[in-house]
Design a protein that fits this description.
Blueprint lengths: L9 E2 L4 E2 L7 H5 L18 H8 L7
Amino acid sequence: MPVDTHAIRILSQRLSIEPFCEQDAVESFSCISPSLTRYMSWEPPASLEEYAQVWKRGRIYF
């Protein structure tokens, strides 16, 4: 049974963790590199459109 993670937030004085959302895509795309994705199940995407295919499958874990 899938779990809805959209309501999950972890907050502290120095950190805020929340589930990835579409609005995060542009900013996070600029940080993706071959060294970051080396052990991931996907290769660095060449475009935002290609990146959308990855995160829409729910496979974004940094």
